[in-house]
């Protein structure tokens, strides 16, 4: 028996385009004092990243895929990272060999390092009511004349739409490589990618542009609503104000809810005119009779997915006081969208 342990030193959350590093340890847990202890042999081990897509059969009508089948799919000696998984593998990286012909004596362990750039052309991690995208690092190993064993390590990918690819510096292209500085150079390149992403987020989300809305009913004006910007980071507070002094109709109570919508394009809907999936992320309720003004603050949860679009549906995040205004609208060249709304 051999134990396999995978550890991601920087945690399980990565930006698309960021370098993912994982330490993989193979251990023979048998004690050398045991009478049945013996050395263990592994023929090989490899690792790769793959993204698994799953669609709800009740909500999504997927296009026909035909009868294409891998002739080696039923073989236990062929590495298929998505073997036994639900849905379709929509993205995978080339496998990297960790070792060949490894011998482990009782109590011995060996650790190997795996690194791979998280693909920039894939969807973000997402678990919706209609579609799901799940990223996993799959580690496969095999003993001689035995089936392949797989270890899957799930992780989260955030896609920052609109971040340009940096030009490759000419001095790095022509300069000779130094084998003693490879790890340092890799960490510097990774840090530069993170810095670009953080700079882009700060510039995009720091722009204040107040949006005013008049809230009315059949009898007249109730209040004026103001939201100070429409693009927010995960974990940031959505802040807005109400001005009731300009209203003709008294307001007893108001509530503000942060919701997200997951919308499937019409050609992929299981039933014509099916309802849009709505998920609530927070609510603020306050009494406001005889109040001239009031404000609210709703945090954007850290565990939600920023607005995106894919080949199947739509999901977004927005805010609407009697009308809607997009809070997040990062879109790619796909057909599924994710939106956030404030419902007042």
From TrEMBL:
Residues 166-186 are annotated as: Disordered. It holds the Pfam family Rgp1. InterPro entries: Rgp1. It comes from the Eukaryota. This is RGP1 retrograde golgi transport homolog. The gene is RGP1.
């Amino acid at each position: 028996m051999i134990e396999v342990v995978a550890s991601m030193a920087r945690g399980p959350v990565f930006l698309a385009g960021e370098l993912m590093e994982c330490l993989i340890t193979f251990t023979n847990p048998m004690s050398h004092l045991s009478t049945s202890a013996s050395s263990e042999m592994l023929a090989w081990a490899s690792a790769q990243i793959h993204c698994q897509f799953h669609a709800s059969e009740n909500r999504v009508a997927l296009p026909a895929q035909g009868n294409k089948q891998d002739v080696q799919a039923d073989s236990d000696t062929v590495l298929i990272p998505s073997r036994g998984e639900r849905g379709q593998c929509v993205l995978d990286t080339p496998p990297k060999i960790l070792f060949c012909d490894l011998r482990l004596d009782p109590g011995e362990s060996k650790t190997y390092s795996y690194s791979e750039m998280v693909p920039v052309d894939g969807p973000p991690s997402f678990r919706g009511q209609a579609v799901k995208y799940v990223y996993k690092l799959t580690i496969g190993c095999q003993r001689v004349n035995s089936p392949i064993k797989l270890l899957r390590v799930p992780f989260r990918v955030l896609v920052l739409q609109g971040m340009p690819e940096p030009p490759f510096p000419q001095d790095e292209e022509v300069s000779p490589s130094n084998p003693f500085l490879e790890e340092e150079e890799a960490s510097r390149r990774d840090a530069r990618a993170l810095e670009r992403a953080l700079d882009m987020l700060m510039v995009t989300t720091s722009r204040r542009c107040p949006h005013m809305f008049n809230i009315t009913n059949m009898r007249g004006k109730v209040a004026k609503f103001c939201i100070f910007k429409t693009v927010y980071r995960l974990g940031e507070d959505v802040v807005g104000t109400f001005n009731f002094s300009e209203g003709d109709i008294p307001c007893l109570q108001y509530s503000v809810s942060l919701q997200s919508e997951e919308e499937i394009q019409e050609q992929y809907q299981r039933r014509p005119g099916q309802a849009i999936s709505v998920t609530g992320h927070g609510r603020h309720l306050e009494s406001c009779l005889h109040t001239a003004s009031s404000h609210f603050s709703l945090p954007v949860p850290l565990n939600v997915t920023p607005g995106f679009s894919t080949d199947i549906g739509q999901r977004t995040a927005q805010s609407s006081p009697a009308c809607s205004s997009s809070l997040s609208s990062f879109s790619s060249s796909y057909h599924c969208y994710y939106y956030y709304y404030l419902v007042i």
